[in-house]
Amino acid sequence: xxxxxVSPWAKTGGLADVTGAxxxxxxxxxxxxxxxxxxxxxxxxxxxxxxxxxxxLGRFVHDVRFVVADVTSDRRVVAVDAPALFDRDxxxxxxxxxxxxxAERFGILAxxxxxxxxxxxDERPIDVVHAHDWQAGLVPxxxxxxxxxxxxxxxxxxxxxxxxxAYQGLFPREIVxxxxxxxxxxxIDTGEFWNQxxxxxxxxxxxxxxTTVSPAYARETRTQTFGAGMEGVLxxxxxxxxxxxxxxxxxxxxxxxAPLLPAHFDANDLSGKAANKRAxxxxxxxxxxxxxxxxxxxxxxxxxxxQKGLAVIEAASEALASLDATWVFVGTGEARFxxxxxEWAARYPARVGVHIxxxxxxxxxVEAGADLFLMPSTFEPxxxxxxxxxxxxxxxxxxxxxxxxxxxxxxxxxxxHANGFKIRRLTPESLVRTLKQAIRLHDDRDTWLRLVxxxxxADHSWETSAREYVKVYRRARLDAVRRTAW
Length: 486
What we know:
Rossmann fold; 19 strands
């Protein structure tokens, strides 16, 4: 596998959670995995770099060293140590601006990963090469266009996973010869996207199979509304494009044992959840008397960007503040939304708590202490927080998009096995209306407990998802055998 982030070593979002958890789940099913990522600044825990090796990609030449860490006998992590490329503040850019040499940086990552797979593997065969998101988008390209350079792995099946179609790795056409790529890579049916080279599109078009992180998102991204201009490319690959819902680490997100929680609980004894609610209110300096404890706490832990519904929350903020609820927000993102939340909390200091920044322990506390968890996303490839919420007995309120639509069964008076609430068409009015329904239901303790326990009983572990990936790997391997038969 090749990825720009792998938890716990390098993480900004859900990509790292997937690439950290999937190899472990595959190992449990009997498979060996190696995952390659950049050695960013501060990533020292993996070990000592090996000898210098030269990686060439077109006119770019870099001396790199590989840091190899055997997590287990069948799972290892490899960091590409190239200080000129990766020893920086930030993974992709600084102050919201991408690094100008990102094509070179992640092109070298792809070339180095393939070089490692070709020259450092043991005698056992490599059956599949799995690239994640645009940062690894040149892996499929190089493996196909420079197959003779990789005789050992050229027959591996190639799988490419889209974690978020909105990030496409777009670069000027002049980068094509600079990277040593043939101009055939810059064609409308390969990597050209509005006269730019898209690393994401090359990953899609040069792979045997393409996956994304939920079945609903796979359907949505074939449409103009959600396709971000790539809908035609994905429709063309309809029979090789599969949505596999992400899982979560159910050991980390276990309310009965999670070390970051001040109190533990399970579906049979929810008293610890009430203790977490008190701790959450105290952490934000909010009222925590009997009246406050009786009111539902609505939490949000997110990047503070428009995709996550912050503009809709802002538009509805005065109506939301009038609801009989308490609000807690944790996240960082666009300055306008950070400013809005700070100002909202200042206007309603007894009801609205805000923490700008990210804190893993606080994220767990919000998930465990809140009664409702809000995810009004405009689009959401998969989403993990709704699964964390279900696991922690916190009822999600979500937009009916992507993985949110796949995982949440909305409450109605006739619904069986409901576990949350859905906003069908996201507007400020529908957001307020859905939250009013949820708050009313919170007072019906028997029905509320059924919702909570239905969510806690759901299985969102990685085992099911890993088995689906294995099916894709086997099909990709067969396709590769046919593709390379000549």
